Amino acid sequence: MYFCYNLYESGIISSSIVSSNYILDLEIAVYVIEMAEDNNVSSTSENPNSDESETSIDAIAQKVQVSKRHKFWETQPVGQFKDLGNPSLPEGPIEPPTPLSEVKQEPYNLPVPYEWITCDMDTEEMCSEVYNLLANNYVEDDENMFRFNYSKDFLQWALRPPGYHTSWHIGVRVKASKKLVAFITGVPARIRAKDAVVNMAEINFLCVHKKLRSKRLAPVMIKEVTRRVHLENIWQAAYTAGVVLPTPISTCQYWHRSLNPKKLIDVGFSRLGARMTMSRTIKLYKLPDSSITPGFRKMELRDVPAVTRLLRGYLKQFIVAPDLDEHDVQHWLLPKEDVIDSFLVESSGVTDFCSFYTLPSTVIGNQNYSTLKAAYSYYNVSTKTPLLQLMNDALIVAKKKGYDVFNALDVMENESFLKELKFGPGDGQLQYYLYNYRLNQALRPSELGLVLL
Ligand SMILES: CC(C)(COP(=O)(O)OP(=O)(O)OC[C@H]1O[C@@H](n2cnc3c(N)ncnc32)[C@H](O)[C@@H]1OP(=O)(O)O)[C@@H](O)C(=O)NCCC(=O)NCCS
Q1: β pairing state of 180-193 and 236-241
Q2: Which residue has its alpha carbon closest to ligand 1 atom 18?
């Protein structure tokens, strides 16, 4: 996962948003244009505001990005930048499975002071160790103001879905002190890419202690989790990252909806818009006290079959989406306090569904606040209630439950409600990847039906 946070101006969702990534992109683009001009590549600077020049800047910046060497990823069965747009390469697995007897039986070598461990997330002790490693070393925003703070309950939920393998929850310890210094996980998932339903691993929570960064430990972690996934006869994986690696199947963006604008402004998550006062901003984001749609209620165990049917029907329209059965739905969508919330609309059957998961962030070094409580849009289906109204109800219940901000990616049909419900665009982008599986087209976010935690 990647921390997508943006200092957007409360109340003014416009192109005047300044984010560090945006500035960086522009710097790259300007540098590249200068290089291009030096090399007599047709100049884009004559009309820097034209759409054509925008496209060229994007294209050139993209080239700079893809020309960066990736010593590790270039050796892996993933789409390579040099193959972009090559229609002769077949869709599907890049490499065939190898016989299980040929899969390396011993773990990869670690530098001498370290040892592999398998993390049994059932035990409170192990769970606490993992929680502490991530709470202190996992994803931060560019300005190091916030850091993801996945709760222990969340980690147990995220890592123990139906059919999970404890061997895919991998830690690295310092032999001498036994301190946990790195972590990576996989969980099994059936993911459909076009017409093929593929058994995959969803890889998440890659983390190396801050003091051990840039020592090429991450590639060893990735190779080890891959080996253990192979040992279960699984050959594909899905993952997301804020960084651009070879090669995203899609690039998505987070949007943020203020629920508690005063706190968001106080902690520096957002700032007061031009010509806005705090009281106008609070009024702008005010929500009703209770949901509006008749029949809107919390999902219960008895709803699992109906919700599964609804979701399965809905997810068919996307090019990449999970293939969820009732066991999956019970695990991933049945409400769990402060982990996953799900609501549905019942009016002669279940017609609509919405859900969000809970992922707080630590506010780093703030006198008044230690945590930002964020809800993340998960899977939503509307067949009868307009999606806009359904998501407005989701905002209302999230506000009522004390969340400060509601986040959503621009995946599935989310774009249809983001602006109208006063979400502002986030900083940076989230790329989606498949391991050992080629798609011959980059997907628009709206063609993706998958949310990873
Ligand atoms: C991500 C993290 C584990 C990488 O470790 P690191 O010490 O910075 O990098 P290393 O020297 O060990 O390895 C570098 C290699 O890992 C790759 N890499 C870095 N981040 C990656 C990611 N999120 N996913 C996959 N590969 C990644 C790099 O691209 C590089 O490979 P390349 O040469 O082929 O490009 C570490 O920075 C970290 O813990 N960050 C905070 C948590 C985080 O961002 N996790 C990832 C969430 S998506």
Answers
A1: unpaired
A2: 218
Nearest residue to 381 via CA among 294, 334, 317: 317
The size of the chain, in residues, is 453
Q: How far apart are CA 103 and CA 184, in angstroms?
A: 20
Residue 350: closest CA among 395, 386, 394, 304: 304
Element holding 174 (H helix, E strand): strand 169-174
Q: What is the best residue among 208, 222, 225, 252 to mutate for testing ligand 1's pocket, by most ligand atoms within 8 Å of CB?
A: 208
> Residue ranges per domain, the chain?
73-81+102-250, 253-428+442-447
| Residues within a 6 A CB radius of ligand 1 | 1-2, 70-73, 137-139, 206-208, 213-219, 241-243, 245
Phi-psi region of 295 (alpha: psi -120 to 50; beta: other; left: phi over 0): left
For residues 299 and 333, is the Cβ–Cβ distance under 8 A? yes
Read out DSSP for 330-360?
HHHHS-BTTTEEEEEEESSSEEEEEEEEE--
* CATH 3.50.30.10 fits domain 253-428+442-447: no
CATH topology of domain 73-81+102-250: Aminopeptidase (3.40.630)
Helices of type H across 95-216: 124-137, 152-159
Q: Name the amino acid, one letter, at 312.
A: R
Q: What is the DSSP string of 180-201?
A: EEEEEEEEEEEEEETTEEEEEE
Reported as a single tens digit per residue, the pLDDT across 281-304 is 999 999 999 999 999 999 999 999
Q: Would the CATH topology of 73-81+102-250 be identical to that of 253-428+442-447?
A: yes
Residue showing tokens 């998961």: 357
Measured CA to CA, the distance from residue 30 to residue 28 in angstroms comes to 6
Q: Which amino acid, residue 216?
A: R
**Which of 245, 361, 362, 453 for mutating ligand 1's site (highest number of atoms within 8 Å of CB)?**
245
pLDDT of residue 9: 54
Q: What is the CA radius of gyration of the chain?
A: 22
Q: What distance lies between CA 292 and its chain's CA centroid?
A: 29
Contact 141, 214 (CB under 8 A): no
Q: What is the pLDDT of residues 44-58, one digit of tens each?
A: 222 333 333 334 444
User: Coil, strand, or helix at residue 205?
Assistant: strand
Strands 423-425 and 254-258: antiparallel
Is the Cβ–Cβ distance between 343 and 333 less than 8 Å? no
Confidence of residue 447 (pLDDT cuts 50, 70, 90): very high
% of the chain at pLDDT higher than 70: 85
